[in-house]
C-alpha cells in the first residue's frame, strides 16, 4: 500500500457513531450469483465496516479484481473523529501479480537463454524468431506491472462518489492538520476478512 493518505477528513461525531452512520449507507460486499454486480443489495457503494476500520468500493457491473478499493480508519481527534483513507488494490490480486512476476522471471530467464545463444550462431534454425524467447517474459512483466494501473484507470470515476459518501454520511470536512504518513495496515484487507465481514 502507498505511504500517504488519499482522503483525510474531520467529522464532528465520535468514532463509534461515525462507523454506525457509514454502515447504514453501504451494502456489505458479500458475493452472490443472483445479482448482476455479484454483490447482494442495491446500494451503489459496497464494503465492510468493522470496529474503527472500513473498506469501500463501487458496485461494479463489470468485473475487475484489480480495481481500486478504499481502505480507511476512523480515530478520535478532539471532540470528533479523524477519517483517514487510501485507495489501493486488494491484497489477493496484488499477491497474485507478484507471484506471476516471479514466475515470469524464474521461467523467462532460462527460456530466453537458448534462443539468444542460438541467434548468435551462424547455423541457427531459429534466426528469424529468436526474439520470441525474451519477448514473452518481458511482456508478462509489463502486463503484471500495468494491471493495477489499468484497473485504476478504468475506475477513475469511482473515487468521487465514495469521497462524497464519506463527507455526507459522516458530516465531515477536510481535516485542518492531516497526518500525511501512514503507519497502519488495514485488517480488512486480510484474505479471510473479505468473506467474514
Task: Describe the fold and architecture.
The protein is an alpha+beta fold and 197 residues long. The protein has 2 domains: 7-90 and 156-196, 2-Layer Sandwich (TATA-Binding Protein), CATH 3.30.310; 92-147. 39% of the residues lie in helices and 20% in strands. The protein contains 5 helices and 7 strands. A hairpin with a 2-residue loop joins strand 3 (45-50) and strand 4. The relative contact order is 0.23.
Question: Summary?
Answer:
The chain is an alpha+beta fold and 197 residues long. The protein contains five helices and seven strands.
Q: Mind telling me the CATH class of the largest domain?
A: Alpha Beta
Strand order within the widest sheet? 2-3-4-5-6-1-7
Order of helices and strands: EHEEEEEHHHEH
Count the DSSP helices. Answer: 5
Instruction: Output mean pLDDT.
Output: 80
Say what the CATH topology of the largest domain is. Answer: TATA-Binding Protein
Structural class: alpha+beta
- The tally of domains stands at 2
Unreliable residue runs: none
Largest sheet: 7 strands, mixed
Percent strand equals 15-25%
The gross shape turns out to be elongated
Helix share of residues?
A: 25-40%
Query: What's the architecture of the largest domain in CATH terms?
Result: 2-Layer Sandwich
Strand tally, please? 7
**CA(first)-CA(last) distance:** 21 Å
Amino acid at each position: 500500500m502507498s505511504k500517504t493518505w488519499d482522503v483525510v477528513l474531520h467529522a464532528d461525531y465520535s468514532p463509534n457513531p461515525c462507523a454506525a452512520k457509514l454502515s447504514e449507507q453501504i451494502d456489505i460486499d458479500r458475493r452472490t450469483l443472483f445479482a448482476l454486480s455479484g454483490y447482494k443489495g442495491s446500494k451503489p457503494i459496497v464494503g465492510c465496516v468493522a470496529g474503527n476500520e472500513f473498506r469501500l468500493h463501487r458496485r461494479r457491473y463489470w468485473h475487475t479484481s484489480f480495481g481500486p478499493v478504499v481502505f480507511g480508519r476512523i480515530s478520535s481527534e478532539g471532540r470528533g473523529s479523524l477519517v483517514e483513507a487510501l485507495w489501493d488494490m486488494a491484497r489477493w490480486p496484488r499477491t497474485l501479480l507478484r507471484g506471476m512476476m516471479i514466475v515470469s522471471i524464474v521461467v523467462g530467464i532460462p527460456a530466453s537463454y537458448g534462443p539468444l545463444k542460438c541467434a548468435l550462431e551462424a547455423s541457427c534454425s531459429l534466426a528469424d524468431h529468436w526474439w520470441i524467447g525474451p519477448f514473452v517474459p518481458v511482456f508478462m512483466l509489463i502486463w503484471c506491472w500495468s494491471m493495477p494501473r489499468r484497473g485504476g484507470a478504468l475506475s477513475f470515476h469511482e473515487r468521487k462518489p465514495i469521497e462524497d459518501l464519506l463527507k455526507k454520511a459522516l458530516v465531515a470536512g477536510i481535516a485542518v492538520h492531516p497526518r500525511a504518513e501512514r503507519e497502519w495496515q488495514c485488517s480488512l484487507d486480510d484474505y479471510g476478512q473479505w468473506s467474514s465481514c
